[in-house]
């Protein structure tokens, strides 16, 4: 077929195709046509380059071709082997072929032609849009304040021995806001917040919002170097903490206890829905974490869309760490609807038997978790606790059919939702209610867009791809974040104007996916080097940068490899001087949190390369990994491993 520029019109492309057919454009040696398209008004075979196209006249109704398309006048006839192709698939192919031809004849520019039939285009338009829903133009903390007025004595936050009513939560948040204002924090400012699992952390978040500022959640277990890097990059004016950090930080430290004697009356600081609510830092491909700025309107819209999962929670168990945006979904859904947030203590989050007691004592009705953590809930929870559940939402990592099957067996009364949505779209954007089909081992979809959102699967030219065809997932709607904090170029690259909704914005997720024939979205993997480990987004480039910080390391490549049922980060390193694995591990621990540290470090004499000079990821994935060794003198030859 002739090559044409995408900007030319359909008729120009057709003339180029006709000229190529008439002149018999040579075909490269070794090429075999599985499909031939040609005018067939004659009965004699016709040469098309090195191929032959024949009119279909099978007197015995037996196909003599795998698949042959014949254009006769204004009709398309298809001869196909029913043993190779299903009739529905051939009919779909025919509709798409006609759609392309019709768009060419309409003289549309080639770049605007979509390979989907009319019915498929209508279906894609329907599947891509969530239900319409009005989102209140209000700030996040204002919704919580309304419940403090309406139901002041209702429980709002439960964690360990602490129980906060809505009145107490609101008053203590006002005290934190006054503390911040006295320290010079005002509208537009950023406050770093050490978010340990504690009721105080929730109070502090709301206090920051009431002061007109935005909070930057920081996990207390992060290495000091990473904390300082986040503080520097964010421009936070203070660090708010429950206790004095054990290391030096480049900003003043405010302790929450200092607010105890201040007034709990409202401050009345004006805050708009377009103002930032929080900036969450995720792994960055350049070796530096990047901050995602989410405004009040985005998280309010995301929270309002939770209604698609059913009635609001009574007692919502939020298992993810508070620095993880997945925690915001359940926490704010409960607090903006009058329910109670149940936060596990660190012991309860990591001790299965303590978690079992919490499920029973806190009378949990809703659960938000990553699938691997919810699996533990199913393993340890008692019958009474499971029978009390009325909704479970999981997300952040792939959901396995065995978890769905166990859930349906133990608590079939509670809908199980598989959520999907990056931090850049305020927690979630699509969801799918799981049933017996998913428990049976079918690929588990991420469903349809939630109310107010849009989800598209597009090709490289931002054109919708037909159902069943892979593309990249793009998300739109009111939950799309403002962008990357202080990184205008990266924001412009990942956040684009929505070509299908004037005035809208789309976020390019980097996830590969497709629409199933059932109208459900499925994820196939990534288009870049990002991976998920226990729900945390990890850029392999940042892990590699952490490994290369040791002066002995000259080259490094990090991959996520399957090890039985588990996935492990494996670092392949080339060193120029003697170094032990524990020394490398200590250096890595200085700059990245636990979930980003390689499970295995493998010393190799060189990294395998493709002919183009890139690291050969396939060779590393198939490389047999030896037992962990102690020093760089114990090296493994790549060629020997590949030949075993």
Question: How is this fold's topology laid out?
Answer:
Elements: H1 10-23, E1 37-39, E2 46-48, E3 51-53, E4 67-72, E5 75-80, H2 87-105, H3 118-127, H4 140-150, E6 155-159, E7 162-165, H5 166-182, E8 190-194, H6 199-210, E9 214-218, H7 224-234, E10 238-241, E11 253-255, E12 276-282, E13 290-295, H8 296-305, E14 315-318, H9 325-335, E15 340-343, H10 346-350, H11 352-361, E16 366-369, H12 371-380, H13 383-388, E17 391-394, H14 401-410, E18 416-420, E19 430-433, H15 436-439, E20 448-449, E21 454-458, E22 471-476, E23 483-484, H16 488-494, E24 495-497, E25 505-515, E26 521-526, E27 530-533, E28 536-539, H17 540-548, E29 553-563, E30 566-575, H18 581-589, E31 600-603, H19 617-622, H20 638-643
Parallel strand pairs: 1-4, 6-15, 8-9, 8-10, 10-11, 14-15, 14-16, 16-17, 17-18, 30-31
Antiparallel strand pairs: 2-3, 4-5, 6-7, 12-13, 13-23, 18-19, 19-20, 21-22, 22-25, 24-25, 25-26, 27-28, 29-30
Brief sketch in words of this structure:
This protein is an alpha/beta fold and about 650 residues long. Among the domains are: about 10-115, no CATH class; about 145-155 and about 165-270, Rossmann fold, CATH 3.40.50; about 535-644, GMP Synthetase, Chain A, domain 3.
Name the features.
Rossmann fold, 24% strand, alpha/beta, 20 helices, single chain, globular
